[in-house]
């Protein structure tokens, strides 16, 4: 029987304080997060080898399985590459334009972005790429543009080869801008657009000729380092292409193939 002056447990008032469930991260995610921050801050330079699995186990007091999972997380994020063998291990790599392209491609495919939205995005971005390309291009950049132009103008190319040359040209314009974010973004965007327009009803001899002339015109402005002309010509080209595509293709969603 409770002593006098004490409340029975059954009669105790419930505290008004409420807590939400606590999401405790896995140990491997904590390890990956710490290593990620040190890589991105530059503390671990590109090409540097991380401590071995055994060293990480000793230093962190985590299990080998946890350490291995943490390294796999970083590998999936493109921040380390894993080599096997006696000289193997985890080596730091900094994210580049391919990381941007992969991320954008995942969004496009995962969200089933409308073809019209892709074309609108290209109209907004690519003229500025051309402007930067005219200001920053190198001789190597011009060589890449001319190589793509030759493939585009070749009447013997198949539809797939023509579309691939188109992708190469548009990516070459972005590459000539020397802006890695724009280059990665345009790589994913161009591939998605051309994957969705691999259509004989649209890509005929006339479309090929128009594209070849437009690309040569933009390339000329880039070669002559005329940013105003590059913007104007690219804007006309991508707007005309978008109009032509949407007149033929009424789809609201696209299916993008995974071309690694």
Structural write-up:
- It is a single chain.
- This protein is mainly alpha-helical and 260 residues long.
- The protein is 63% helix and 3% strand.
- Strand 1 and strand 2 form a beta hairpin.
- Helix 5 packs parallel to helix 9 (205-223).
- Mean pLDDT is 87; it is low at 251-260.
> Approximately how much helix is present in the residues?
55-70%
Strand content: under 5%
Which overall shape is indicated by the principal axes computed on the Cα atoms?
Answer: elongated
Given helix and strand content, the structural type is mainly alpha
Mean pLDDT: 87
Order of helices and strands: HHHEEHHHHHHH
Termini Cα gap = 75 Å
Over the alpha carbons, how many angstroms does the gyration radius reach?
27 Å
Report the major sheet.
2 strands, antiparallel
Number of strands: 2
The low-pLDDT segments are 251-260
Question: Strand order across the biggest sheet?
Answer: 1-2
What is the count of DSSP helices, taking H or I runs of 4+ residues?
Answer: 10
